[in-house]
Amino acid sequence: MSGTVAHNPAAAVAFHYSDAVLLHHADASDDASILTAWAAANRLNAFARPVIVKRAVPADSAIAASVPSRSVVLNAADPASLVPWLAAAPSPPTVFYANAGSLASATALASIALSFPVVVVLAASDSADDLHNSALAVHAIARSSKTNAILVSAFVPRGNRSSAAATFPEIDEISSSSEETDIARVESALASLKVSPKLPFFSFTGPSSPSTVVVIPGTAPTHFERNAPASVGVLRVRVLKPWSTAHFLSALPQAVQTVAVVEFGANGGAFGSLFLDVVASIPHDRGITIRELRVKGDAQNTSVVRAVFEATTASTASFVDVNGDSTTAPSRNIVAVSEADIEGPYVSLLSQVFKERLNLANVIGESSLLQKQTNEIPAVTDAFTQFVEKAKALVASGTFSKGVSKPLQAWVDALDSRSENHADLLKLGRKALEVLGAACSYKSDLREFYDESRNFLLKPQPQPQPLSSQPEKTTASPKNAGGTSAEFGLGLLLSQIQERNRFIAKATELASSPSLPQDVKNSLSAWLSAEAKEDSRKVGKEAFERLSAAADSDRSLQSFVDAAKEYLTAPRPSRWLLGGDRLTHDINASGVHHAIASKQNVNILLLDTEPYSEKVDSLASRAHRKNVGLYAMTYGGVYVASVALQSSFAGVVRALTEADSFNGPSVVIAYAPRVSDVPAPSLSNGILVKGGAGLAATAALASLKETKRAIDEGYWPLYRWTPGSGSADNVFKLDSEKMRGELEAFLERDRLVSMVAASEPVLMGVASSVEQELRENVEQKIKNSYRDLISGLNTTPVLVLYGSDGGAAAGAAKRLVAEAKQRGLKPKISVMDEYAVEDIALHEHVVFVVSTAGQGEFPGNARETWKALQGLKNGGDIDFSKTRFAVFAMGDSHYWPLPSDAHFFCKSGKDLDAKLEAVGAQRLVVAGIGNDRDADGWQTGYRKFTEDLWASLGVDSVEVAGAAAMVGTDDAIKEASNFLRGTIAPGLEDTSTGALAELDQRLTKFHGIYQQDDRDIREGRLRAGLEPAYSFMVRVRVPGGVATPAQWVAVDEVSDRLANGTIKLTTRQAFQFHGIIKSKLKKAIQEINHALMDTLAACGDVNRNVMCNPNPTNSLVHLEVLDFSRKLSNHLTPNTNAYHEIWLDKKLAVTSEDVEPIYGKTYLPRKFKVAVAVPPHNDVDVFAHDLGYIAVTEGDRLVGFNVTVGGGMGMTHGMKGTYPRLADILGFCTVAEAVNVGEKVVLVQRDFGDRTNRKHARLKYTIDDRGIDWFRKEVEDRLGYKMQPARPYKFTSNGDRYGWSEGLNNTWSYTMFIQNGRVKDDETRMAKTGLRAIADDFVRRDVKGVEFRLTPNQHLIISGVPAAEKWKLEAFLKKYDLENSNMSGLRQNSMACVALPTCALAFAESERYLPDLVGKIDEVLFEHGLKDNAITIRMTGCPNGCARPQIAEIAFIGKAPGTYNMYLGGGFNGERLNKLYKENVTEPEIIALLTPIIRDYAKTRIDGEHFGDFVIRKGYVKATTAGKNFHDL
Questions:
Q1: pLDDT digits (tens, 9 = 90+) for 859-905
Q2: Positions marked catalytic
Q3: CA dihedral in degrees (745, 749, 754, 757; nearest 10)?
Q4: Which residues lie closer than 8 Å to 26 by C-beta, 6 or more apart?
């Protein structure tokens, strides 16, 4: 080992290790160049900058230099020479390096160092790399702990390392006679300096047989041992590994059951090194539970130490956070992460909504809070002050009768008056104690207060520290009152209200006092008038200034002025009491009743955490717990709201603001379900869990699903009750579709009472034609029944049941029904789970169509039926002897690649077939097998199955004309639709269902509309006998992604009033709405069109939204490109009038006018996508599209485009005949030729694309089947000329460029990060509200030229901002936290599709899961100094490629719930496909697979090498050179 040393103490020269063993010094003429060279060679990470190396001799010159971070190299040949260095105790953090020749010598040196206040690190090494890593580690330790450290290293030959590293002997075990002299000299040197004696590596303090031991590092404060509970032991560790495992275990008591390891300076990321060392040293068979306690901030205060010991039993989590603060008395914050996840969002939201107005009292023991301190508050720092506050609270809450509270209040008042007569104080205390004894004897919850009062009421006490006796402090952070009951939190708030009222009374008195100057009285009166408003600070500040000036001449005002500052200069507080589950068990005893009865302006936020899926069977018990809202409404004069943050963020904000503005008590009940099947909490909410249905999700995601189900099934209704707001309709507002029966009964009773109380009650009108209407209905029903009877004679009934997750089995079942009708059968179709097993047995002919999910599992909508069948005894229970059945099983034989997994293929259908036979049903035909790997996919097996089925039913000889058209192929549907009209218009009027007919669903795609249902609650609705929760996704076509501020406002309005309250920015620069129900669909389309946008051709087998570089204000070239994109989009838009007739109520046009000159009646075989790129930025991923244009420029002039054709990302798992493909370059065209070239490309695809197999219908397959030369000739023949050769271009990236950039005409643009394109408000930031405020401001002031631009990476650019407006936009960005700050390079380049719960094609989560996964991968990147490295990562829930994952450097494509295929090696600039790295990976496997690759990338990458290029160069995956070899591994 060698060291490079600087003569200049201030020089920043890093320590460099080589393979040499002995330490020596080398002079350097150029310190800066040495540092640069070393950093380049060793890839210095963030933990070791800067490291300054000092010469060992002379010692005084090195130690005297005071620099922030420094290292001292010691001569280890003489151990005694360490003593003066260590004794000098230079200012931390100083790092000492000492090398020893043997393990024994290293141990001797370490034992010397332990006599001093330094962290000691022993390192056994056989290489320079190990020593280098150890040096960086000890440097990081010194910096993070802000203390001195020493690295004592020993060189161990490679063959001896394993045994040597396992056991470092203790000092008393060193028997080497050659070292006895050195040790004696060291002891002599220590004695002369009078330093502390040698310390052992491990020292235990505490009982001999503790059940719990807290392990602390050697640098921890000594009051850990002094403040440890009697039953808890403390094990102090003064050396880092490698240590002696035997000695560690010998120091650990045998009886221990729980070990809690304390880590200081933890950042919430990976587990600390001490924790991992302890885990590695304790054998698994000991059965010891090991937990990490992460202490953040300064832990010198004893209260934090006590909190650490409390945390050892506070949670079952694998780690617990304990916060310390060095500036104020630390507040205890021991939060198991599951608790924080539940309460933290609500506390954060209260802080966001009310900011400095928030005054939050927590009910300790009911709920643990995230205490995000934004403004410090006075803390209760002594027992006496805490007792006084508790006494005030109990008096104010009305817990005691007047006879009890009066003596106690008198004692408190005597304290507040600062009485010097201790005899009077003791007399009052004695009287209060006497009445308290009687009052508390029968209340066990108050007995503790009585026992505590003996210590204070009968003894002279010092004056309490000011807390509630002072005017209240408004704060945005939770007030942890420190009590044990709800009465204390409520009483604290009520006492503050009383104090404020006393101040107001005094102010009112002064405002009418003749002795005050008139200007003072006027300003004080103005404040009194404005006092009830949210922000009265302006007039209050003026009043305070005038009062202060008046007090200078009138000293009698000084006491009032002292108290006035906190009231006059602070806004009106919003007082909140936060409670947990137990407050809902006993309303009278919990304090809720006291708050309601107080009639004061106190708001209660109750968090109900019982998951709906785990609700108890006892209806009475459940109703009793949930009746707080009903109780409050019945009591009267109370605002009540029932909310759920996971359902409607805006609804929660609305309820909180209404509660705050209501003049009286308010009760807001919030649903915050705990997800019991989360195995371990996580601060990032990123733990992958298995839900009840096997669905993988994060903890937050599981909570979201619980909430949606509870609301949808009426268990948790969303409502607001505002008494005194007018009519009954205004008093009660239901924000969800369902309410529980008891709530409905209360409302009905309230309406009846209101009618009786009215002087002229209004009765509901009764139609005079009721009898006639009833007669007509009966007659119609008779006619319908007769018609059904006649049509059913001489026909064979067939029940078709299907189980389908992705829709393929449902489609096959519907096709079978259509064919059965043609053959004269009487089919009925249904989802399997909609039929009870006993009802199935009543049918004579039953056909099952079942797909396969997961590892041979049944689809979600068939599992209940299968469970019921499994529970039947073979040949018993239910009589199936009259039932004849057939099963068509569907699957993919290559979905499970391992031979051992082959039995999963079509397992669900095969199992169903066998079980039906076992219970006595008769088989119609042998089970059919639909294999996606067959030539025509599942249809190959389907044809054979139906041939046999029709023969068994005796209808095989029936001639069916035009069967294909009846079945409904896509081209037949399009051709018969009358240019996309179908029966959409009458379907919208059908209120019997929330869905549209199947054929209309295919047509609405051309109108930009997809029918979906909420898959999170699908099974619950099915069990309840309800149809799926149908809604519609609407996509707004925005060519080039350009929208005005006014259009943004319109989009925001539609999302709030007609959709689910969020805006989705898509990967193709379009707006997307989710959750629009059928009754609101037409209204939504009309409002979109009123904003001069449309949805036509946003989906369907036509050209869709034309993409282009998102910021045309960058240059004139960008402006020309946008203009071309709009022209091309208009040219390729369908010509049908159906859109305007159906959605905009235009008159029916003459059919002959409907002509599609480009598309024809059958339109294109499949969807068609176009993108335009402006090098060097390929943010549109131009090669991923059917048709692309690459701008070619000369100077600042656009001269034309290189045209690309044949790109596309979609594929199907297991079908190698489907694959992603990057486009080929067709040639060059001028700007004037570009639109015509695009049209001809579309026409060739229209005429030659595959219309027989939609999986093979995209342009990429047309080109691969026929060749690019053939395709070029077809295009050129239609053009009438040959295209020019392609011209040079170069792409450098495909990501967005965040932050500010200057553009044309002195304008500015700001690009902001929108996570996965979802614009919404949540507890982290109010993005939707902020962007609406920005757009409103621009619209209101009519600022010209500003535009909202959607990027292809799902982000947003506010462009065209005049220079004079830049400051104002910056203020908005800061106010709403929309600035791009502290984001990793990986997160900035992440992208995900929507996937679950609305996409019918999704196999796994994507948008809702990727942010958490990125956070976990970021931890690995941060550890290796790669925080800012740009790496593209993308995720989709299925292989259709909406987020273009196949060209990402890291990609995950959903395969099954919680399972993904992992791909690596995509091109950073979007010009190379990635390659499959690992199939069927879950989150733990993802992190385990990526960690070593990232580590390798950090160490061995070439300068400027992107991650995708690196994994190919190092052989992790092969490069994909063409779409056809994408699947070749």
A1: 878 888 898 888 887 666 788 888 999 999 998 887 776 777 788 89
A2: 1035, 1104, 1167, 1169, 1393, 1399, 1438, 1442
A3: 180
A4: 2, 3, 4, 5
